[in-house]
Design brief:
The protein has 449 residues and is of the alpha/beta class. Helices cover 35% and strands 18% of the residues. Strand 7, helix 6 (222-237) and strand 8 (241-247) form a beta-alpha-beta unit. It is globular.
Amino acid sequence: MRRPAPAAERPAPAADARGRRARRAALAVLTAAALLGAAACGSRLPESDFEERPSAPRGTPQGEPLRVGVIASATSPVGGSAFTGPRDGAKAYFARLNDRGGVGGRKVEVHTCDDGGSGVGNNECVHKLLDEKKVVALVATTALDYAGAPRVSKAGVPDIGGQPIGSAYDTYPHLYGIYGSLAPRDGEPGWDGKLYGGTEVYRYFKREHGARTAAVVSYNQAASAAYARLVKRGLEAEGYKVVSEQVDFALPNFRAVAADLKDRDADLVFDAMDTHGNAQLCKAMDDVGADVTAKVTNVQNWSSTVADDYKNAPRCRNALWATGSSRNYEDTGHPAVRAFRDATKGEKTHSQWQLEGWAAAMWFTDAAKSCLASAGEVTRSCVDRFMSRGEPYDADGLLLPVTYERRSEPPQKRETCVSVARWKDDEGWVTQGDMNRTCFDVPQLSYQP
């Protein structure tokens, strides 16, 4: 155990608070930047790439369970609940599956591991799950620092439906992020170290709501400012007039930013900040009477905690819009969403990340069922072949169709669809249009992960 630092070595309370906020801001930027390429599709591996892999336990249909691992940075420096949604969604799916007999009569045994949000902890989780528990696959990985990704790939263990917080899912074979990838995945991120994302979100608000002026708010912090520049590029590519706003990281003056947004008649507000910063900005916007068409957030903040997170900003709260690549968890008219909500009705909160964790668990289950039907057993190599077979997967309509390819050249333009919802206090997140028809042929812009 690491001993506490002597008092003289410990950061002052203000410095420590700034450090915590820095980590939260970095998380928000990492997640948002990764989600920029969320609609990109992914990679098929040739049979020669499949290495020898340990098998899952053999047995009769009522034999040994199928072991899967779930890594989540549950106690990361950015907060205890930031990374648990996908894990909880996956666990809920497997619990329901086991109640109904499992896969071919075999239960799915879920082994979770909290990596603490560190690279060291992540490597320890990978060792525990791969080498000790002998899991047949990882499911719904949600790691702040996926340092163990090269080891997972080298072992040929399929990692199914993970959240692309970093660039691992566009770097290594055998890793299958929830949104797919077109990249070669040969050990280097994307193409020559660059990833690509589309401008479909900006096109949506321009086409559907006539937005013409967009503000981008960031901290005067390197990662936040870099992501803000990326958003600005995308908006400008779609013909927006862009208003760039930056606040001091240690002492942010959100009221001044809000007043300027009002004066500049911004239609949209995007940001490169954490949830706390967004809530403070929204409060300031309410205080000065800055009304916008949409305050746009991403899938990580698409949750039922909005009412509490933005409790002091009712007008701005009801201007919140979220975009992503999965069906709104509130869309209970859809049978697959209804199944998810029925199985998680005991949860205090619901989120889009929970639904995507549920979809990841479904993905593994479909792979396992295919293996039993075709080969009579569930092995790492068989599951991996199912994942890399080159056919789109939509988790019974929960996801925009996800595919994996290995393109030697990055896409310059693509038709990309987007899922959109807006918050209303009396209804929660309300779906805006059919995500499978809200599609745009948009340019793909490069960025450094």
